Amino acid sequence: MSRFGVLCVVASAVAALAEPDPDRSGIDYRHGFSMFGELKYPSDYTHFDYHNPEAPKGGTLVMAHMGGFDTLAPLSSTGARAPGSDLTLDRLLTISGDEMNAYYGDLAEGLAVSPDRRWIAFKLRPEARWHDGVPITSADVAYTMETIRADPFAAGLPDVLGWIASIEVLNDREFVLHTHADVTAANFTILNFMTVLPAHYWKGRDPRTPDLVPHLGSGPYRVADFDPGRKVRYERVRDYWGRDTPPNRGRYNFDVLRYDVYRDATVAREAFRKGLFDYWIEQDLRHWVSAYDTPAQAQGWLVKGKYYLRIEIGVRLMLSWNTRRPPFDDRRVREALTRAMDFDWQNRALHWGLHERAESHFPDTPFAATGLPDEAELALLEPFRETLPPKLFAEPFALPKSSGTGPDRASLERARALLEEAGWRVRGEALVNADGAPFEIEFLSRSPADQRTLLPYIDSLAQLGIRGTIRTVDSTAYFNRRRSLDFEASLRNHDILLPPIIELKGFFHSISVDMPLTRNLAGIAHPAVDALVETATDATSFETMQTALKALDRVLLWGYYQIPLNAVADPFLAYWDKFGRPARALDAKYKSPFPHGWWYDAEKAARIRPGD
Length: 612
Known about the structure:
Helix content is about 25%, strand content about 20%. It is built from 18 helices and 23 strands. A five-stranded mixed beta sheet has the order 18-17-19-14-20, sandwiched between helices. Helix 8 (about 330-340) packs antiparallel against helix 12, helix 10 (about 375-380) crosses helix 17 (about 540-560) and helix 16 (about 525-535) packs antiparallel against helix 17. The protein is globular and about 80 Å long.
């Protein structure tokens, strides 16, 4: 199941099923929509600031794809889709890279939300065409949405359009999406991901059936050739209808995109160093520190830098306790376990000090809890005061810090005191409860890389008398145990899309506690959390959303449900310097238009000799 599928599972949790009658006597279409404030770009904008409208077209971009692919079908949920296949189709909307939750028309030249927020109307661009020259119409959008709605797992997207009550086609270029409940930011996020299929082409075919046939598209690229075990190559559509629309001007500049298949990161890394493909996003800090210290880097041909993603925030690595079972249902125990984790030592000794500690579930954003709750937060928290720790209202939250040079004795002593308060005592070398049962933790893992984090932590736990073990299993066993909630603790990614709206219920709300493969791994089920998630999700102003998220962050931190480790950071990017890049994109506050806003620079490429 794709990440998009997981994040949309709960997007349709909602209310009434009544369908309002839209007043269509003069729909006020706009060129874009923002749930929180005014749009940055006016109706006559020509391009996004972080694109170069004069970027030349040409050249080839070669990329690595880890793993294989076995289908080109656009809605297959049983096969692995070819990398880049989404570039053959268009979307209704595109999200702005330098605004908070702002969407502009892509296929749609206009969109409108009803005053009561119960329907969204769209007007398609008259120039939009499929690659066979047939106009893109409302019927194509309706076909796509109905196909997905009819099969909850089409394209691996479970119930992604469940918030839509019906689709009303007004004419060839206009249609209305009636919703079950108020339109939210989550709805637009979903539409930003969804590509539109040609109804006339798929008549008598099934886009959900896996196959290896290049299908009709409308996007900037089409499949040129492929070999499922080795590569897939796309060619730029030179008469692409959307080439000069404002969201696309300056994008899709390479004549050819090629994805080469690799099964092993070590092999791929060596292939990159030899110049067999053009860039590599390095996820292993051990290699980032020294693997690229080569003559090519000294010559300036091979460049190390950052890829400013600006899409995901949150915690890159989180240690979650299964609070559905004892002793992890005791907040004192969870706090003690948190105090036993010496992040500063691990960061210095194992990660060259390159990781930033996540002090929040939404670090480095306006949504992170800081200091004491302000007046607006208190108004949301007060109804739940009796169910929350008193310290939440009296002390700023802080994770334990150490010198990073040796055992953090102060934190371990505080952890021991908390465990004693919770009824655990040291007997011999073991920590036991009143029944004499030892405190043992099994960490469920599917990656040997987890040992790098868990083994030092297990050593710290041993000083408290807690026995920790790592159970490494294959992917099938891992997901089976996840599905049956048969685990005590596990490491995992905890990144969340910005703004953190669409995934809130999946991560933190009680409705997700027992869902199959839930992302609420800790089993968080607290009335304050539920209320704050719902307030943030339904917010119609940035201020309301921000207040609810800060209060939510505070409740989660003081609950010690999970141990946040390193924060989501901009990925480390190494690339062969044969490209031009938009000047504004070098500013870290902008989302990098990478790679589709870059372009091939023949003069730069001519000076590079990877083998030298």
